[in-house]
Specification:
The structure holds two protein chains of two kinds. Chain A is of the alpha+beta class. Chain A has helices spanning 86-99, 155-158, 295-306, 317-323, 410-435, 442-459, 467-474, 484-491, 504-528, 536-561; strands at 20-32, 35-45, 52-58, 66-74, 77-80, 82-85, 103-108, 114-121, 126-136, 138-141, 144-149, 170-171, 177-182, 186-190, 202-204, 211-217, 225-228, 236-243, 267-274, 277-284, 308-311, 331-336, 348-355. In chain A, helix 5 runs antiparallel to helix 6 (442-459). Chain B contains five helices and two strands, in the order H-H-H-H-E-E-H. Chain B has helices at 3-10, 14-22, 40-54, 59-68, 96-110; strands at residues 72-77, 80-84. The chains are: A alpha+beta, B mainly alpha.
């Protein structure tokens, strides 16, 4: 029988798991010339009968756009993501997927596309994904400003170099979408519509086409400056500073006396060079204890932090960007719920499809004959894509196919294994030396045990910024409890408060007390395990040191108290 | 093996593995979420998928090829396409005996003269 090897590729049912579709898209814009605050909220429903992990790939951030907020509402419960180092966030999110936790993650991919992953969505649950950003208006000329917000992207270009799990999916289906523009004394037009937009009112838009706004100053309005109580705490100002070609020496610190900021300890200032103009922003520092910021204050703080030039109090730009929740290639936005929220089932990864951008091909469209194009047997072999970045701050161009496994350093791992078992081995040696009276150097073995256990504790200190390790670090003072049994044994022993010449009854009670001390020191590390998730190994090592100290104190006390010959 | 060990063994990102499991390219783990366990069949399935992606097959085509078990077509030269059993892809099978057999068959097929019977 002749078999056409390509026959399988022309069958109609080539599509895999159907992606989830968006139900509603809502675009909210607050015009704060020369900046604009943008919030895009996309809503979908888990139509499947399983708990899922929804993955949504979004268009790249625009030029000079600062993304500073991810809020996800799952079944009416609101989760807000906070900035974490990207690798740590990714690891924590992956771990949460296996632990059945609710989690949300926004990260910037190698090609600047944004990826949202939401863990733990129950069947038939509605999910709202809201991403907030701030960016400068464009200046096409003639006293006009413009703002273009893409709601989808050309998947042919965007998906190049992305993993299959990260690729953007699109669908020809359309869903309701609305636009609401806020602003004061501005005239705003929307491409494809006649007349001015009614500010503050919701307008229906095409869910796939980019939102293109034209902005002009209205009666008494300005495109050059917007301010809100700039001299007061939490106040802010955004203004066009000067044409760049007029600025001698580039971006210099700003003279803030003119703004009445001298008495404000919370201000930060940023200055960005955008399309030939310099935009200056003064805002409240996200590190300052100024109470809850308004949405526009948060946006200005994020923009100023992203382009920091000066601050009322010394602060590092990295710390400020973290506090302002700014997404970049090295920082992701993440929230993880508590462990064990979900049933014992792996969440099923489902992609969420965006509407196909006009003029772009749909990834889910009819399958074209592929004819194995990459195998050009006449020409040279296809070039290898560059390996993925190994560092979070690596800015190599996109092209990351599967990640390279980390280097193994076998000798180092072997050393860690030996170090991990060393305390147990030393305890065995110690017991042999102490009980069988084999002539071992007991003091050296004891010191060796403490050194090995201490090194293990240092090795397993919860130093990462993953949520569970952060929580474990906050709870480290609880480990002081391990010092209580050895101290109690010593103080309550014959070398502490108890006299050596006790009556027989008092001696038996004293020995019982010493036994209680050692039992407590053995149980304490185990009792703290549930509270020290993320630092359990560290807790165990410190607990072992406490136990051995107690054992030594109790042994000395018991031997001293026991009636001799 | 645990999920983390599977990630190290394959060198594939965790999210990509979750995607492959969800799409059915890789079998789900045994033992549910809490005691999820993976074995060599998962490593092989992931390696096979990644190799086929490197060869230029889109995910949908890989799905169909694996489901239909009609063999993976791989062009070799003008007018010659190999059909390979999906189980052999990225399996680490020694190619030497296959090449030997292929060499003999292709010589027999392309020769102007008929091959000797036996």
């Amino acid at each position: 029988m002749l078999v056409d090897p390509l026959a399988a590729l022309f069958r109609p049912d080539l599509r895999g798991e159907t992606p989830l579709r968006l139900e509603i898209t809502r675009v909210d814009v607050e015009l704060l010339p020369p900046l604009a605050r943008i919030a895009v909220t996309r809503t979908f429903i888990n139509q499947s009968d399983a708990i899922i992990e929804a993955v949504l790939t979004l268009p790249p951030a625009q030029q000079d756009e600062v993304i500073y907020g991810l809020t996800v509402t799952i079944g009416g419960v609101v989760y807000r993501a906070a900035a974490e180092p990207r690798r740590a966030a990714e690891r924590a999110h992956d771990a949460a997927a296996g632990e059945g936790r609710i989690g949300i993650l926004l990260e910037r991919l190698a090609n600047d596309a944004q990826l949202v992953s939401i863990l733990g969505i129950a069947p038939m649950t509605t999910v709202e994904v809201r991403i907030e950003s701030v960016r400068p208006l464009a200046w096409p000329g003639d006293g006009l400003a413009a703002l273009v917000i893409p709601l989808s992207a050309d998947t042919r270009r965007l998906n190049r170099g992305l993993l299959d799990a990260e690729r953007m999916l699109t669908t020809a289906d359309r869903h309701p979408a609305t636009l609401t523009v806020m602003g004061e004394r501005l005239n705003v037009t929307l491409a494809g519509r006649d007349g001015l937009l009614m500010l503050g009112q919701s307008t229906r838009i095409d869910c796939a086409a980019p939102v293109a706004l034209g902005v002009a100053a209205g009666d008494g309005g300005s495109l050059n400056r917007t301010a809100c109580q700039v001299g007061e705490p939490r106040g802010w100002e955004a203004a066009i500073d000067a044409p760049l070609d007029c600025m001698a020496g580039g971006l210099e610190p700003v003279d803030f006396d003119a703004d009445g900021l001298a008495h404000r300890p919370d201000w930060i200032a940023g200055r960005a060079a955008c399309e030939g103009i310099a935009i200056r922003v003064i805002a409240s520092s996200p590190l300052a204890d100024a109470g809850e910021l308004t949405p526009s204050s948060r946006a200005m703080a994020a923009f100023a932090a992203a382009h920091l030039v000066d601050s009322a109090t010394p602060v590092t730009p990295v710390l400020l960007r973290r506090a302002a929740n700014i997404l970049d290639r090295s920082i992701s936005l993440i929230f993880l719920g508590p462990e064990g929220d979900l049933v014992d089932a792996m969440p099923r990864l489902r992609k969420v499809a965006l509407p196909t951008a006009p003029g772009a091909s749909a990834a889910g469209g009819p399958i074209q004959p592929m004819a194995l194009e990459p195998l050009d047997i006449e020409g040279p072999p296809p070039p290898k894509l560059p390996p993925p970045p190994l560092k979070i701050d690596d800015t190599r161009p996109p092209g990351a196919r599967p990640e390279a496994p980390p280097p193994s350093y076998r000798w180092l791992r072997l050393g860690q294994v030996i170090l991990g078992w060393a305390p147990i081995g030393l305890v065995v040696v110690w017991l042999l030396g102490a009980t069988v009276w084999v002539p071992f150097p007991l003091m050296a073995v004891t010191i060796g045990f403490f050194v090995a256990t201490g090194l293990n504790a240092v090795l397993h200190f919860p130093r990462a910024s993953a949520p569970d390790q952060t929580r474990a670090r906050r709870r480290l003072p609880m480990l002081l409890a391990f010092a209580v049994p050895p101290l109690a044994s010593w103080i309550g022993g014959p070398f502490g408060l108890i006299p050596k010449d006790l009556s027989a009854l008092a001696t038996s009670w004293a020995i019982l007390f010493q036994t209680g001390c050692i039992v407590t020191s053995a149980v304490a590390p185990l009792a703290l395990m549930p509270a020290m998730r993320g630092g359990r190994r560290f807790t165990l090592e410190i607990g072992a040191i406490g136990f051995v100290l107690t054992f030594l104190a109790v042994s000395v006390a018991t031997i001293t108290l026991s009636p001799g010959d | 093996m645990k999920f983390g060990e599977l990630v190290i063994a394959t060198g594939v990102a965790p999210r990509q593995i979750r995607y492959l499991i969800a799409e059915g390219f890789v079998p789900p783990p045994s033992g549910g979420r809490t005691y999820a366990t993976y074995d060599q069949s998962h490593v092989t399935a992931i390696a096979r998928y990644e190799r086929l992606r490197d060869l230029g097959f889109p995910p949908a085509a890989i799905r169909l090829l694996l489901d239909a078990r009609e063999g993976i077509p791989v062009p070799v030269a003008n007018g010659v396409t190999m059909i390979i059993d999906p189980d052999l892809v990225a399996s680490g099978t020694d190619p030497a005996p296959i090449l030997e057999a292929f060499n003999a068959r292709i010589r027999a097929v392309l020769s102007r003269e008929a091959a000797d019977a036996g």
